[in-house]
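Continuing the series of single-chain predictions for the mutant panel. This is the parent chain; the variants come on the following pages.
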Amino acid sequence: MLVVTGTGTGVGKTVVTAAVAALAPGRVAVLKPAQTGVGPDEPGDLADVARLVPGVTVRELARYPDPLAPATAARRAGRPPVTPAQAAAAARELAADHDLVLVEGAGGLLVRFDDDGTLADVAAELGAPVLVVTAPGLGTLNHTELTTAALRARGLACAGVVVGAWPREPDLAARCNLADLPAVTGFPLVGAVPEGSGTLEPDAFAAVARHSLSCELGGGWQTPEA
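Parent structure:
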């Protein structure tokens, strides 16, 4: 199993999750314990994963209409929240007949699922490593180091850091961050997925994934020179 978190919202977590799924051998499932900010009949994050990676199993446990943290969105909707225990149980159920289960969080590592539990608690229950998806530019060093420090404080393994939306024309900060991210976090940079990759067709997306993720995640990407 692998848990995928972001350093915040909008960093490309869903596209990175899909890229990992596209390169993984065997049967792959993606679990989204809580989806917020979409209505009952609207496509959520898992619709993007299913479109980009045909054949992947997707499962969503709950969705809430307000674009808020899951615990807050559940409370406003008058519905029960998803607990870390429920998320972990669903992941184990999927693992029974899949070779890899990816658990995609909502927002960052410490965003609340319920009043007490976070994605970090899900990873702890599963004993699963956490892949951290981050932004490329200015400010990302602080956000990423805070996230990886929280992993260390909880005794959780980190599978590495991936830049979720690498710009077509990276600025100086983005280029320098390629070296600075592993230096400040102590964890390897294991990919940089180009921005806009989520709009590609499945075959093109799989090719981009192979060139955007490192060998640890099934690809051939290597950190370019800053």
